[in-house]
Amino acid sequence: MPDLSDLGADSLGVWTRAQALTILSVGEVDGLVRRRTWQVVWSGVYADGGFVLDAEQRAMAAVLAAGGAGQPVTFGPPDPDTGRQRRRLRAVACGRSAARVWQLPLIDDDDPATGRREAVLEDVASWRHLAPQSCGERRLFTHEPTFGRGDLIRLPSGLWLTSPLRTLVDCARLLTHEALVCSVDDALHRSLVVTSQLEERSAARRGDEGAPAWRRAVSLADGRAEAPTETLARLLLLPVLPDLRPQVVLYDKAARPVARFDLGDDGVLLAVETDGRAGHAGEQMVAKDRRRDRRAAAYGWWTERATWYDLRRRQDDYRARIVSKHAELARLRPTR
Description:
By secondary structure, the chain is an alpha+beta fold. Helix content is 36%, strand content 20%. The chain folds into three domains: 1-49, no CATH class; 73-223, no CATH class; 230-332, Endonuclease, Chain A, CATH 3.40.960. The chain has helices spanning 17-20, 26-34, 55-65, 95-101, 164-171, 177-189, 195-204, 211-220, 228-237, 283-298, 308-312, 315-332; strands at 14-16, 38-42, 45-48, 73-74, 87-88, 91-93, 121-126, 133-135, 138-143, 152-154, 160-162, 245-251, 257-265, 270-274, 302-306. The strands form five sheets. A four-stranded mixed β-sheet has the order 6-7-9-8. The protein has a four-stranded mixed β-sheet with strand order 12-13-14-15.
């Protein structure tokens, strides 16, 4: 068997069938696949068997499946002014694939509450039209957008993908409203984008596909949110309880922080805390939450908690519970 160590060396451990056939015969390639020594990521794209690809490897595999091996490639005659050969990209990761590389929280990727499983969907921008590809339950969608200056980035790994800002813009027509706002919040919180960039894109995109969804998400974005659950709680509660504010800090008389709430209304002393998808499981975490709630109660604050299921499946019941508690506290402690 020839030395296969160079396969995928410059493409994050994934490679194409065409690359494999430069050193192996058709029968040898098919045998490696049949014995599951290699796994089939997409038709004609392989990786070593026995491990799960991370987000960047998955994006690279999607780009290769869309014809992005060995890019940028030459095209057309040389530039008449400089004499340089023109070069262009054939495929870049975009949309959900790029969002995962940027570690944006795609809440619909694998949600036990709603049953949504968009983790099986990948997106690539290509200069040529390609029909969607399937491999098992996974699907690869290709898009044909027009890119502007700064829209594309090449990572040290060699992966070409859309910038964080352009990724969010493209996701406006791919994600649900809640998922888009969660991603925009996260990008703002981690300084992947700034508010002025979002507003500039809103002005530039009037009339474009996805523009209404983009403007709505930008109008509701808040970079103070530290987790998707905080965003989801804010989207549910602020329309009915507008005095709730993100990241409210409770201080003692010496101006030392006692607690910081995901959402808080210091008029009625109501705090809202949210648990992640896995919840605050385990005796230590439960005890920690209870201690925190007791500390806040000593200063007159009432804490209401929300689980992932409250925020994703029991929204009406959860919102009614918080509104009821807010009204009760308002009667006991009139708003200042």
